[in-house]
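Q: My labmate handed me this sequence with no annotations at all. I'd like to see what the chain might look like in three dimensions before we decide whether it's worth expressing. Could you predict it?
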Amino acid sequence: MTVGQQRVWETNWADLGRKLEDLPVGTVDLDAWFGRVAPVVLEIGSGMGEGTAQLARQAPEANHLAAEVYPAGLGQLMLWVEKYELDNVRLLHGDALDFLRDHVLPDTLAGVRVYFPDPWQKKRHHKRRLITAPFVKLLASRLTLGGRLHLATDWQDYADSMLAICEAEPLLTNEYDGWAPRPDWRPITKFESRAHAEGRVCHDLMFTKSAT
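A: Here is what I predict for the chain of 212 residues:
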């Protein structure tokens, strides 16, 4: 981590963050963690956090929980939180799948965002991809009725796989006929900028939980 990231980790982590391995057994009280009752949106893989911070600024009425496995990314997000004086962001260091399975009740989250997850480009590595049918089923179970799952990727075969998986999940309904138009409110990340520079098309998918 940089000096700045290390500083905010030492001064702000105790208030903003939790490590997965330190969570007590059972459901996490998200309202207590945020210090207020508000819809919770989970972002899985927040990267270096600038996009997460921008989304939190745009939607102060929501609680934004960022899950990331890389400490430097969480440190950078805390710098953005400090810069913008955000009080609606919390950070989880650890695997989002374990967090959702072991610590989040069904029908809890107003939204889940997964932007530009690792595409694991080689075919033999596709099994490592995050967006699989079992994971989408878990995500859907944790969404509230009407909650949104928003995915984005710049790899065509991954986008096709995401679309097929989500459309096969009975709890979810596609908000559009296929791909969603890119929303103006989704910040452009370095991954998306790189994709455009390399000639790849980015796809958004938006699905709503429509059944229980």
